[in-house]
């Protein structure tokens, strides 16, 4: 399984330069400004301003955007990192305020592919057709309005200093057995997404429920072992590196690989029963002031050069090399199938069951059943 999944990420073929539309260029040197939650590239006086909102970590995505900026020196790119929930809620709020106004971002990239699909389904995205979008496999393009730009396996990660290799669980059944072991090696030392605040966490957990008959038993075992919750993969990786927890369930591979490359004592588990393959998906909002520039960036990301840069800089897997016939790989296709657990009643029912299993007795429930918005940390 490990070697098969590693092969998923290899991009075949020579890299080609992207042919971009002509834009006004500026003679002075471009400026770059980086903050915790954003990045600005290009000349401040450019009349071609491209606004990108995404859940991708600034540090992880920076190299890709810098390459696009080098190819398009006449464009000022303003990037803001937001949570998947914030991306969704902001788009809906803008439309409710004045659906005809041209405001907000020109491109939205989110790892909550169900919320992106819902934005399309509810009429908040515009259609885009190009040679790059036409080259996508069917599962990666829905209605020419939402597109996969790369994929990311959802994995388990453990601290190699705290868990012996002989006890590492390679399936969910093995994880359940470890949680039930008499010596309780994972007691107060396991973490999973807070599905009440994370779009990715909610998507992964509901897909587990759909695919795995043991999902309820696993949640109950989490609760009995004093599970903690994380808001993002980065949050969980911080806890793992510090040794505060031993194992984290449902993390994104790309961010984990980045930590391992930096020397963190971590290892990835690709569950052999099934490994979900999540898409980072992009839409051009209906209200985009410069939808043409959003389309330009989208086509760059889908081009051979953009796909190679995404693989090298962010650790995402190229779209056309993401799915190979291998036991256990479960790619999630863009489309209406992702909307099932966004139904209000189904969501409320799922969250009630999740809270009952995970949260300590006495924790106040959230009676509206809604997933609250987190504004300060992207749930990547």
TrEMBL record:
Which keywords has UniProt assigned to this entry?
Signal
Signal peptide region: 1-31
Q: Does the keyword Signal apply?
A: yes
Alphabetical list of InterPro entries matching this protein = SBP (IPR006059)
Q: Which SUPFAM superfamilies match?
A: Periplasmic binding protein-like II (SSF53850)
Q: Gene3D superfamilies under this entry?
A: Periplasmic binding protein-like II (3.40.190.10)
The name this protein carries in UniProt is ABC transporter substrate-binding protein
Q: Does the keyword NAD apply?
A: no
What is the originating organism of this protein? Achromobacter spanius
> Which Pfam family, an example, fits this chain?
SBP_bac_8
């Amino acid at each position: 399984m490990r070697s098969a999944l590693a092969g998923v990420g290899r991009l075949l073929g020579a890299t080609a330069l992207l042919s971009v539309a002509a834009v006004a260029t500026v003679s002075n040197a471009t400026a770059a400004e980086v903050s915790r939650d954003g990045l600005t590239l290009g000349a401040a006086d450019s009349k071609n301003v491209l606004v990108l909102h995404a859940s991708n970590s600034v540090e992880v995505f920076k190299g890709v955007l810098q390459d696009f900026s080098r190819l398009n020196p006449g464009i000022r790119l303003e990037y803001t990192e937001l949570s998947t929930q914030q991306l969704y809620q902001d788009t809906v709020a803008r439309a409710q305020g004045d659906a005809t106004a041209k405001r907000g971002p020109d491109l939205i990239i989110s790892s909550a592919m169900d919320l992106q699909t819902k934005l399309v389904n509810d009429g908040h995205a515009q259609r885009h057709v190009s040679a790059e979008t036409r080259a996508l496999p069917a599962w990666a393009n829905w209605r020419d309005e939402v597109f996969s730009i790369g994929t990311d396996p959802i994995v388990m990660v453990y601290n190699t200093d705290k868990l012996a290799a002989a006890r590492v669980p390679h399936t969910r059944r093995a994880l359940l057995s470890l949680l039930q072991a008499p010596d309780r090696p994972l007691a107060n030392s396991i973490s999973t997404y807070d599905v009440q605040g994370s779009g990715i966490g909610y998507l992964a957990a509901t897909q587990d429920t759909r695919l795995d008959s043991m999902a309820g038993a696993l949640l109950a075992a989490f609760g009995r072992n004093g599970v903690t919750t994380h808001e993002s993969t980065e949050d969980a990786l911080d806890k793992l590196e510090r040794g505060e927890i031993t194992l984290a369930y449902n993390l994104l591979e790309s961010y984990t690989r980045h930590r391992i490359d930096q020397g963190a004592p971590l290892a990835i588990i690709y569950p052999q029963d099934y490994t979900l393959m999540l898409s980072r998906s992009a839409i051009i909002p209906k209200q985009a002031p410069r939808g043409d520039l959003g389309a330009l960036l989208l086509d760059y990301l889908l081009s051979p050069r953009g796909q190679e840069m995404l693989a090298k800089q962010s650790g995402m897997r190229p779209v056309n090399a993401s799915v190979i016939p291998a036991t256990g790989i479960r790619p999630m296709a863009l489309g209406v199938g992702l909307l099932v657990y966004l139904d209000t009643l189904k969501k409320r029912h799922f969250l009630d069951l999740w809270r009952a299993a995970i949260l300590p007795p006495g924790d106040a429930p959230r009676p509206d059943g809604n997933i609250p918005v987190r504004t300060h940390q992207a749930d990547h």
